[in-house]
Amino acid sequence: MRLFVAIEPPASALDELASAVAPLQAAAPELRWTSRNAWHVTVAFLGEVDEAILPGLSTRLARAAHRHPPLELALAGGGAFPAPARARVLWAGLRADRRVLRLLAASVAAGARRAGAPPPDEGRKYSPHLTVARCREPADVSPLTAALSAFSGTEWTASSIHLVRSYLDGGRPSRYEDVGEWPLAASR
Questions:
Q1: Would you tell me how many other CB atoms lie within 10 Å of the CB of residue 140?
Q2: Using CA atoms in the order 33, 34, 36, 40, what is the torsion angle rounded to 10 degrees?
Q3: How many helices (H) and strands (E) does the chain have?
Q4: Residues paired with 173 in a beta bridge
Q5: Which of 39, 80, 137, 171 has a CB 3.0–4.6 Å from the CB of 84, allowing a cystine?
Q6: What is the enclosing helix (H) or strand (E) of 179?
Q7: 148-183: b or e for each residue (b if 16 or more CB lie within 10 Å)?
Q8: Which pTM does this prediction carry?
Q9: How do residues 150-162 score in pLDDT, each as one tens digit?
Q10: Using CA atoms in the order 83, 71, 12, 149, what is the torsion angle rounded to 10 degrees?
């Protein structure tokens, strides 16, 4: 099963982002725009994981979540991977305490590794974002990233992490299913 760990923004934050993204969708219909119900902030991508390790993975993720406090986050700004001039992914950014978010991501990745599900992108710098569109071929999305740069959503509290299963259709994620949720519980 293909899994990742994520933070799910509240509906109010997604409403704000949807309003900011709507004119961009009209301006660039050639992009593959992600659906609102798929919007999330990935904490750790785990890739293909054997279902047999799910109980141990759940235990490790619960422990990791319990070690970290709820996070104050806001969707804000935007960018592209690998770069706006040759993008494959257009994303909305986060306004957050990056150090605290990186510590959570590292703890989740370590728990996954101990459970037998080493993240395939382990060792890469964690770059929190919410994917809003994908490009079939590298594209210049500089006007879109410039438009997103002014976006600044309302702050919200992330109080849990989710283990999510991704179902692929033709190599692209087609739908997501929550497998588990654990509260961020450490006191500040």
A1: 14
A2: -140
A3: 4, 9
A4: 168
A5: 80
A6: strand 172-183
A7: beebebeebebeebbbbbbeeeeeebeebeebbebe
A8: 0.92
A9: 999 999 999 999 9
A10: -30
